[in-house]
Amino acid sequence: MQDNLSVVVLDKNDNSREVIKSYLKETPIITDIRLYSNFKEGFEDIKKSDNNTIVIADISDDTYEVRDTVENIKLYTPRLIITSLDYSTNTIIQALRFGAKEFLPKPVLKEDLIRVVTSLANISPDANESQAQIITVYSNKGGIGKTTIAVNLAAELAKVTKDKVALVDLNLQLGDISTFLNLNPVFDVNYVIKRIMNEEEKTIIKMFEKYKETSLYILSDPSYIEQSASVTPQQIMMLFNALRKNFPYIVIDMSSGIDSNTLTILDNADIILFTSIVNIPAIRNAQRCMNLFRSRKYKQDKVKLIINRYMDNDEIKVEDIENTLGEKVYWRIPNNYFTIMEAINKGVCISEVNPNSNIGNSFRDFALKLSDDIIEQTVLRYRI
Q1: Could you tell me if 248 and 205 are in contact, meaning their C-beta atoms sit under 8 angstroms apart?
Q2: For 17-64, how does the pLDDT look when each residue is reduced to its tens digit (9 = 90+)?
Q3: The pTM is what?
Q4: The CATH classification of domain 5-121, taken from the options 3.90.1150.10, 3.50.50.60, 3.40.50.2300, 1.20.1250.20
């Protein structure tokens, strides 16, 4: 447990601030308590603090100032507790979207506050592992658009969550992520795995290529094809463990083949975005792959069916695909060849070419839905 912790309280209610302060004074590990009714002033204090600081922010007053401040706190400290007079499911989802580690309904009970403060004091400020999500984009058929989906989904996740997102190219022989984003990374997967083996996983984030002024971090495939042969399932497991400790969201692009590395990636992913297109050969391939997933007894909702290049006037309808595969379609990405090719040729994300296009809107809404669904699963522990 860490000691000498500071707490910043953001709450517009005078009485509430003082009550929380009185409770915190009974917690020996808290040595400094700073109260603010003005959220902007409190946020300036948080920005200057180290990540040992615990922030307690009240969102009962649903104003732009409150929302704008609270949603940016997680950029400066992972130790955020949110309180509110409204403790509906929607409010808890919003709190978790803001990056809250804990939610407390008001009026706050002393035992609850002391419990969650003590819990946050016991964790490493950089601890993400328990909540980290590995999201794998996969298809057992080439040419489906996996890399386009992985790149643009990861970029939009970084925007909508304002969290660090890792985009990792585990298409070990023919990866394209660095090409899609016009990057020339100094380090690659092979190099990072060797550093992890030397117990340097705490510095892993320094080996990623940051994409412009965003919270998206890229790790490319091995520089030479022959290096891919040396990557083993055990090393992939080590890589995943290290990624979970450094990133809340990890998006994996991978090859279409089925081998021991592929199965390791799929087995250890939290979410598989299984991608297909609307034609008979692709759907038949998808059917084989769905049978594989069922044989491996993946948990419910782990596999999410994505239809790429979808057109409303396709002869094969969504209902036909769902009936054939025995799986509901989770998301449809519209067909927009020219926008995609412009983004690829310029080496940027679709949102930088045409953010208001049908496909730009689709990726943004896709990221919102996926992040909200992940958060809703977390909410269940508040409702048990």
Answers
A1: no
A2: 999 999 999 888 888 999 999 999 999 999 998 777 999 999 999 888
A3: 0.81
A4: 3.40.50.2300
